[in-house]
Amino acid sequence: MKETLILVDDKDNPIGFASREECHQGNGKRHRAFVVFLFDDEGRVLLQFRSKDKLGGQRWDVTATSHVRKDETYDTAAERCLKHELGISVPLQKSGSFTYTEAYEEYSENEYCAVLIGKFNGKVIPNKEEMDRVNYSALDEIKKDVAENPEAYTKWFRGAFPIFCDFIKKSGYTR
């Protein structure tokens, strides 16, 4: 299926549309994307180990991530993504955003990325086309590992993680 993505400026104002392929060629075209962080009642964060076949693969990543397609909102895109990647549906809250770029030989990421957060305590069914495995990890363990091994995490994870940590701190969740 050919995906049409929403091109945006640095403030998330729509400026056009382009195919997923066009958005990732060369230096890339800035487009809408999002990341999802899910945490459970024990304060553990659900991470995925990204498939080697994906851009940025073979690194730890957020719970789920994707692009916002033409005629989607962040919420409907995240709902589609969580069903596809983990077989679940979870209410989410937007907690911030960031922009980033990252080059991979002839391809690039160039995204305006919304950070969506939710709480989830159920069972997931990882999509093996998207990820090799999932793991629940304590927030303090992740903070330590990101500081010691930043390249073991996707660049968008490293951009989103401080926003997630700030959300957790402000929400009063202390685990």
Short characterization:
By secondary structure, this protein is an alpha+beta fold. The protein has helices at 20-24, 74-86, 139-148, 155-171; strands at residues 4-8, 14-19, 31-39, 44-50, 60-61, 64-67, 93-104, 107-119, 131-138.
What does this protein structure show overall?
The chain has one domain (about 5-170): Nucleoside Triphosphate Pyrophosphohydrolase. It is globular, with a radius of gyration of 15 Å. The protein has four helices and nine strands, in the order ββαββββαβββαα. Strand 3 and strand 4 form a beta hairpin. The model has no long low-confidence stretch (mean pLDDT about 95). It starts with a strand and ends with a helix. The chain is an alpha+beta fold and about 180 residues long.
SSE layout:
Blueprint lengths: L3 E5 L5 E6 H5 L6 E9 L4 E7 L9 E2 L2 E4 L6 H13 L6 E12 L2 E13 L11 E8 H10 L6 H17 L4
